[in-house]
From TrEMBL:
Domain Uracil-DNA glycosylase-like: 48-225
Family note: Belongs to the uracil-DNA glycosylase (UDG) superfamily. Type 5 (UDGb) family.
Protein name, entry field: Type-5 uracil-DNA glycosylase
Coiled-coil ranges per UniProt: none
């Protein structure tokens, strides 16, 4: 475990300007704002991961929302997707509170770190393959720093799954061939030559489209989190 290394990585991520389209978009959103947040000073930068450096479970999403993480500076914070995710984490005993409104709201995660394969808010929530690939080294470094403790991962959505598999491989785990296909509830064990395996779990993304239509229900999300937490050695203590 290298807490200082992860803190340094977070600071470096916050200063990245590698993708011109994403830089332009995140900064334009921060200038123009949404009327409901007119009094906010938007973060407007890449959003680093959130959670303790000795996390046993990592949750990998897609990218920050324009008026969520791009506004608050914390993953899945200040938007409806985050409302769903953090409520579920609280329900199964992995978060100190069920809401995530801003970066100084006192929220703590217990043994869990939340991150993404793309750290900047993309237009229409759709990063390009080139932007995904340009951002991958950040995820690889984060996973390498977490390797001493992390034992399970939950990947939210097919985009995150496709982006995360090569990152897991570069970070030292063995990804089966052919690559496992994403699906809700899919579970794959990723072996490592020099350490314990990682339990990889697929989950539909906590997007409004999925949660509003019922494709992903709170019960479905809690079930995946319970399974992954147990695999990681973090038995849930609450069942909402």
């Amino acid at each position: 475990m290298d807490p200082e290394g992860l803190a340094r990585l977070d600071r470096r991520i916050g200063g990245c300007r590698a993708c011109p389209r994403l830089v332009d978009w995140r900064e334009e959103v921060a200038r123009t704002k949404r009327a409901a947040f007119a009094d906010w000073t938007y973060w407007g930068r890449p959003v680093p991961g959130f959670g303790p450096p000795d996390a046993r479970l990592v949750i990998i999403g897609l990218a920050p929302a324009a008026h969520g993480g791009n506004r608050t500076g914390r993953m899945f914070t200040g938007d409806r997707s985050g409302d769903v995710l953090y409520q579920a984490l609280y329900d199964v005993g992995l978060a100190s509170q069920p809401t995530s409104a801003h970066a100084d709201d006192g929220l703590e995660l217990y043994g869990v770190r939340v991150t993404a394969p793309v750290h900047c808010a993309p237009p229409a929530n759709k990063p390009t393959p080139a932007e995904r690939d340009a951002c991958r080294p950040w995820l690889v470094q984060e996973l390498r720093l977490l390797r001493p403790t992390v034992r399970a991962a939950v990947v939210l959505g097919a985009f995150g799954w496709q982006a995360a598999l090569p990152a897991f491989a570069e970070a030292g785990w063995t990804v089966p061939r052919p690559r496992p296909v994403f699906g809700h509830g899919v579970h794959v064990e990723l072996d490592a030559a020099d350490g314990p395996p990682l339990g990889l779990h697929g989950c539909f993304h906590v997007s409004q489209r999925n949660t509003f239509t019922g494709k992903l229900t709170p019960e479905m999300l809690r079930d995946v989190l319970r399974t992954a937490a147990t695999a990681a050695g973090l038995p849930p203590t609450k069942y909402g």
